[in-house]
């Protein structure tokens, strides 16, 4: 079962560029060489510029746990961790997922808005 790992972190404004540079160095190494890693994202809060979110998706939780336990992992993430004042890690198993087959366009959005405004037929 696929897993989603969520890190809620705080990065002071004066460390933002160091944090992003450290993330940039790590992300390509992980994406290209860590078994079971599927994707990741780094996100900054729209309302609190010091609040960040890193999510990663893994083929199985065991893949992430093996990576997290590896000495290589600790060495790679050390520069990122040095930029954080707070960090919280959460682990989730992905039970269901919905994907959009075609990204909605403005035209599709307008049609949906009209249908919603009109109500059920």
Q: Count of DSSP E strands? A: 4
The run of helices and strands is EHEEHHEH
Gyration radius, to the nearest Å?
18 Å
- Morphology: globular
Uncertain stretches: 111-116
Describe, in plain words, how this protein is organized in 3D:
- By secondary structure, this protein is α+β, with helices and mostly antiparallel strands.
- The protein has a single domain, classed as Alpha-Beta Plaits.
- 42% of the residues lie in helices and 26% in strands.
- It has four helices and four strands, in the order βαββααβα.
- Strands 2-3-1-4 form a four-stranded antiparallel β-sheet.
- A hairpin with a 6-residue loop joins strand 2 and strand 3.
- Helix 1 packs antiparallel against helix 3.
- The radius of gyration is 18 Å and the shape is globular.
- The protein starts with a strand and ends with a helix.
List keywords for this structure.
alpha+beta, single chain, Alpha-Beta Plaits, 121 residues
Question: Strands, helices and their partners?
Answer:
Blueprint: E1 3-10, H1 16-33, E2 37-44, E3 51-58, H2 61-69, H3 71-81, E4 86-93, H4 106-118
Antiparallel strand pairs: 1-3, 1-4, 2-3
Give a short summary of the structure:
The chain is an alpha+beta fold and 121 residues long. 42% of the residues lie in helices and 26% in strands.
């Amino acid at each position: 079962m696929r897993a989603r790992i969520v890190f809620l972190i705080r990065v002071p404004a004066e460390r933002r560029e160091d944090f992003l540079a450290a993330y940039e160095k790590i992300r390509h190494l992980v994406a290209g060489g860590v078994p079971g890693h599927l994707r990741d994202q780094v996100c900054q809060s729209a309302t609190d510029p010091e609040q960040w979110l890193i999510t990663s998706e893994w083929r199985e939780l065991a893949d992430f746990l093996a990576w997290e336990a590896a000495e290589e992992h600790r060495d790679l993430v050390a520069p990122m961790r040095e930029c954080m004042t707070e960090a919280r890690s959460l682990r989730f198993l992905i039970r269901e997922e919905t994907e959009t087959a075609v990204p909605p366009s403005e035209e599709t959005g307008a049609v949906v808005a009209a249908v919603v405004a009109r109500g059920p037929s």
